[in-house]
Amino acid sequence: MSETVTVRQNTVVAAVIGLGSMGMGMARSMNQAGLDVVGCDITPDAVDRFVANGGRGATTAIEAATDADIVVSVVVNAAQTEAILFGPDGIAGTMKPGAVFISSATMDPAIARDLSRRVEACGHHYLDAPISGGAAKAASGELTIMASGSRQAFELARPALDAMAAKVYELGDAAGAGAAFKMVNQLLAGVHIAAACEAISFAAKQGLDLDKVYEVITASAGNSWMFQNRVPHVLAGDYTPLSTVEIFVKDLGIVQDMARAERYPVPLVAAALQMYLAASGAGMGRDDDASLARIYALLSGAKLPNTSGGSLA
Amino acid sequence: MSETVTVRQNTVVAAVIGLGSMGMGMARSMNQAGLDVVGCDITPDAVDRFVANGGRGATTAIEAATDADIVVSVVVNAAQTEAILFGPDGIAGTMKPGAVFISSATMDPAIARDLSRRVEACGHHYLDAPISGGAAKAASGELTIMASGSRQAFELARPALDAMAAKVYELGDAAGAGAAFKMVNQLLAGVHIAAACEAISFAAKQGLDLDKVYEVITASAGNSWMFQNRVPHVLAGDYTPLSTVEIFVKDLGIVQDMARAERYPVPLVAAALQMYLAASGAGMGRDDDASLARIYALLSGAKLPNTSGGSLA
């Protein structure tokens, strides 16, 4: 290791906390861009795989972050992000002074503002930087990042952002804006997946040729990014999780909580969330989110391709 | 007129019943393609405008249809379509034997099947042919048509279809399929407009830069054809009707009625329909359908661009 350290003395050191399908791709993208990347994860196997691919591994977040100029947090939600920073083994007190913490989890903007304030109080910088694009784009370093934070946070984060993203939206000089833009996107994405499933199973219920429905709708005013992306899973009867039902149980839950606090009615989000809850409650929480189509089919007797059919009766 | 008749002896004669924003464009497109087009409308002024643009006028549907090889019905709904055919002054008994009736109104597929059966019993042909694309595409002869019907109905209708449409989807050999595909499209379109309005006013409630929201979302997974098309109306504060709230009160109402009859639950359609009803009930029924954003703003205090603001209190 000493040789590597010598060679990389002027190299930016980045820690990635969370080596799931997104974090692994982001860590490798930074590695390939020439950063010295240290990864850690609660699953030792994930760390081993990253090390086998040329990264450095660490067993704890504190160890990973100790020499890092940039810490990229790629965990599931606000609670895990807070635990990484301020939990019993949190890094807020042990990070290198003046380093930047890049937070990529989708969360309520109010929490992003609070975490930013507390991280800055410890002498570090905070970039509110939710990500979009999925595992494939993470692996190729072509994510979309919706970011906000101080000028200095952006400057310090730049080598990581350049390595991970095809597009970085700079959405404001304070934490919260990035999170808020992400929540607007998730509101639409979550409703559109549910609408796509409501529509394709409705077409199945009427006995229409579903491949033809896909062809016509994707060329018509009823199209959405999500209809185009998710309906092929239904047509193939393949619910292998590319993005799970539980993600939108979480994200539409955040939208609903935000909206309730702000006294803003969200009838479409509320209706869609019930369908994600139904899918999760029916045992499909870890399946692909296109599984909502199977719930509509179960509730109506519609026949979808390559599914066992199934019945609630 | 006699000279014209002589010149056009081998010309296909088409009647257009209903010269609204769609029908006028369709009639002119057929005229420009060399068909001999007779237009009629309950508004004499519309007929005068069509005649001033080189068409022929008629005062009643019976008069318009009497010599027509093709009758194109461009009215609002199933009830008007049935009245044209089988009402007190209906054309079903007076149409030229063997002519084709092209029905473009959005309607329940079961009604389309019933009308087709009754028209065929009178010795004519019926093409179930809902249209999509809006007034501009109608004027340029570039509509999308979702059609089903017998081979003979398609053959007879071909000169009209070629003149009116950029794309004709041939969706089956019997009436009903065209209507069903259109309803699937309307389900999605209606839900997506409501989702776009729910999202953009939610962004406004949080004080986000709405032009930036539009830029980010249209490049992200939250995008839809309708978000991209309708949100600019909200950003401009311009609710001049390009397509009215009442259209989706009607079309989501049809979807809900179909779904109820089939015992198919449509929670997203149900939620969206309530918002169209709220907009209509608040006096915006004849405004642009992006007016749903104004309802969300009224219900939450969100501030949208160039609106008087308004308050329910």
From TrEMBL, chains A, B:
EC number annotated for this UniProt entry: 1.1.1.411
GO molecular function: NAD binding; NADP binding; oxidoreductase activity, acting on the CH-OH group of donors, NAD or NADP as acceptor
Swiss-Prot/TrEMBL keywords: Carbohydrate metabolism, NAD, NADP, Oxidoreductase
Top-level taxon of origin: Bacteria
InterPro entries given in the database record: 3-OH-isobutyrate_DH-rel_CS, 6-PGluconate_DH-like_C_sf, 6PGD_dom2, 6PGDH_NADP-bd, HIBADH-like_NADP-bd, HIBADH-related, LtnD, NAD(P)-bd_dom_sf
Record has rRNA-binding as a keyword: no
Pfam families named in the record: NAD_binding_11, NAD_binding_2
UniProt entry tagged with the keyword NADP: yes
GO biological process: organic acid catabolic process
Catalytic residues as annotated in Swiss-Prot or TrEMBL: 182
The protein, known as: L-threonate dehydrogenase
Family (UniProt): Belongs to the HIBADH-related family. L-threonate dehydrogenase subfamily.
Described purpose of this protein according to its UniProt entry: Catalyzes oxidation of L-threonate to 2-oxo-tetronate. Can use either NAD(+) or NADP(+) as cosubstrate, with a preference for NAD(+).
Gene3D superfamilies registered for this protein in UniProt: N-(1-d-carboxylethyl)-l-norvaline Dehydrogenase, domain 2, NAD(P)-binding Rossmann-like Domain
Residue ranges of every copy of the 6-phosphogluconate dehydrogenase NADP-binding domain listed in the record: 15-172
Chain ranges of the 3-hydroxyisobutyrate dehydrogenase-like NAD-binding domain: 176-295
Catalysed conversion reaction: L-threonate + NAD(+) = 2-dehydro-L-erythronate + NADH + H(+)
